UniProtKB/TrEMBL annotation, chain A:
Signal peptide range in chain numbering: none
Record carries keyword Signal: yes
Coiled coil: none
Keywords attached to this entry: Amino-acid transport, Signal, Transport
Biological process per Gene Ontology, one example term: amino acid transport
Species whose genome carries this gene: Actibacterium mucosum KCTC 23349
Pfam families for the chain: Peripla_BP_6 (PF13458)
Family: Belongs to the leucine-binding protein family.
Leucine-binding protein domain residues: 43-403
The protein, known as: Branched-chain amino acid ABC transporter substrate-binding protein
Domain of life: Bacteria
Automatic annotation (TrEMBL), chain B:
Keywords: Cell membrane, Membrane, Transmembrane, Transmembrane helix
Taxonomy of the source species: Bacteria, Pseudomonadati, Pseudomonadota, Alphaproteobacteria, Rhodobacterales
One GO MF term: branched-chain amino acid transmembrane transporter activity
Transmembrane segments: 45-63, 94-116, 123-144, 201-221, 248-268, 288-313, 351-372
InterPro entries xref list: ABC_transp_permease (IPR001851), LivM-like (IPR043428)
Gene Ontology CC: one annotated term: plasma membrane
Cellular localisation: Cell membrane
Organism of derivation: Actibacterium mucosum KCTC 23349
Membrane topology, record value: Multi-pass membrane protein
Name of the molecule in the record: ABC transporter permease
Major location category of this protein: membrane
Amino acid sequence: MSKTTVSRRGVLKTGAVAGAGLAAPKLLLADGHAYTNAPTGSTVTLGFNVPQTGPYADEGNDELLAQQLAVEHLNGEGDGGCLNTFTSKALQGNGILGKKVEFVTGDTQTKSDAARASAKSMIEKDGAVMINGGSSSGVAVAVQGLCQEAGVIFMAGLTHANDTTGKDRKANGFRHFFNAYMSGAALAPVLAAEMGTERRAYHLTADYNWGWTQEESIVASTEAMGWETVNTVKTPLASTDFSSYIAPVLNSGADVLVLNHYGGNMVNSLTNAIQFGLLDKVVNNKDFKIVVPLYSELMAAGAGENIKGVLGSMNWNWQLQDAGTKAFVKSFGEKYGRPPSNSAQTCYAQVLLYADACERAGTFNPCGVVEALEGYEFDGLGNGKTLYRADDHQCFKDVLVVRGAQNPTNAYDTLEIVEVTPVEQVTYTPDHPMFAGGDLGTCNPGA
Amino acid sequence: MLGLNSKDFRLFLVVIGLTLFAPVLLNPFPTESGLAQFNAGYPDLMQRFVIFGIFAIGFNILFGLTGYLSFGHAAFLGVGSYAAVWMFKLLSYNVLPAIALSVIVAAIFSLAIGFVSLRRSGIYFSILTLAFAQMSFALAYSVLSNPKFNLTNGETGLQVYNDDPQIFHSDRLPDLPHLFGLSMRASTDIALGPWTFTLNAGYYLSAVFMVAAFYIAIRLFRSPFGMMLRAIKTNQTRLNYTGLNSRPYTLAAFVISGAYAGLAGGLLAAMDPLAGAERMQWTASGEVVLMTILGGAGTLIGPILGSGLIKYFENIFSKINDDVLHSWFAFMPDGLEDAMVFIVHPFVGKGWHLTLGIVFMLVVIFLPGGLVEGGQRLWRWITGANRKKSDDQDTKHAPHAAE
């Protein structure tokens, strides 16, 4: 360094500046609201945090549309949708607790960091009392942690990994979506009925947290009914060509291929598998089969012809015939001209449930809302009878087993419902090994 | 003063002033007004401004001075974050040990990567650093997060759990990162008429670190060591022919800039105790290159301006949705309103990348020196100093660039 002369005056000045700098934080004391972002005016703000760019942008967009629809219905606009079929009648169509519902949106980019930044800006800048939506388990867990720290309610959107309400469960977070364990439990009996109990399965698994928990769940439930697992192979998430992973399947002696992939991964791996003619093969005197444990409408559309006859599971499908589904599909269809996806339904239901919980609790205080949602049982939102379990904030309801339609009549009925698995069959104990290690903690009202 | 010449000291004071009053300067619009959408003075974004400012200052020490373009700097940021969160998990939520470890770990990590990568220069160096960073990303995303050896927690990101040891944690302390009990999330709202300004503890801590980082960067730029780095940028071959071994200098610059990135990563984790693998992805590495070029590579304040601009776009423009647009153009007749929304729609909300891309193109084409050059041109135009062209290189660092 060129100049390093020390003068008395220099030292004094430096000391004064440093002292002022150190003293500054002492002036900052937390101020005392009852809870974070208590709404003071005539409106209340909800935060809709969905992927608008990146691999799940289409799903995020669908979630956003559904959430806007939910806000309309809460404010008494439109046809009211599921407010008419919901078993709780606390909601009057005059907003929440008399306050008009407004919302802000943000882009998660399907990255934990960006999602947290976006959620933080909603909480810190826009005064959101609740964050809803998302389309990936990593993001869900990250934002759930943030909401717990910040003292707002989090409703998870599309997240299927066991960890969201397993080892990463949080008191301020709730999940309406089903999880990998439930997929396994719902699929296994259908697989046994369709393919027999003497199958040899080969797993291709996306190499990240969700893939592992799904693989673990499916392996456990299929082995329990007598299947043998030949091999489980992890594929990098960024792969677009799975040929090199498919070829060994043919020589492994396996007669079922389980694709623990989601989104673009699944579309590509399934297409590769079809190109290799796997479905035309006969191995061990049995027809070769492919299973995709987690389906979405988007993936079905992307995979086109290839999904015909392929089994999988879903949280909800617009072709269900209950009153809640019909009401929701009708208002969504009339507004946007197409049926909603299952992630859209999840986000829609979550907004209504949150609003309803506030009404029943008589407050927006997260602790009141948590209390109102814990152990809450309801019907009429499209999933049949549903329970929000208090122990882990996981929702328990029927799970759909679906199959790629053989003869779709239009672009939207690419999947057909094979079976509605009753909730008893997919229920597990809160301390189930696949969900162990979590700690809800206590609800945090923030501020 | 402080070993700076008067010009640098003025610039230093300007930076201190800007960071000190950022909560006011960034909230120019009253809270209830329609323009409040453009306010950036909330804690999370202000923290990001200064933290990515540190990141870009550090990157500029390498890229701006030696001309070595590292395409893998995000790896050091990520490593710093992971180190910090591990300190939270093992020791306590106190941010100081976390930040200290994150700097040390990032420095060691950059020493290893720099030792290998710096054997090549130019594009080969860039590709090597990119490869190492992508390798670190893949390690963090999958390899090091398997259930048997879970160092990074993969896609979900490393978090602090209730059952972590946290041996120095006590019930009196907040369950959030804190500085001897002062929570990083502690904020005070000051209402001034229709305006609300939020003073946040975490922001001011980051700001102190940024001011310190900036001071060190000025001293580096003006030191004989900085001169040597500039010589490397100008003509490394000639330097080698004079008998000087330039590699220790480049390696030192690389490690210093890696340590800066680690500091930024540690601070990110201190503001928000989560470390995600995406922090190490090549897009994150590219972002800091953009920040530096956008602001003005090789200038002192440029990287800070560039990082501020990019973070502003990412966080403010991405939140303007169609409803907001409709409310802006509500005064127009229906048909015209829809038409305006249709025109503006691709550039805001999810289209913020597009707007940023256009700004970047314009800057690179018309202001090769970045925003700093824009500021200088504006200043010269205002003062009418265009005629007397300064031959002093240091005009680049004049304080007006901060505006």
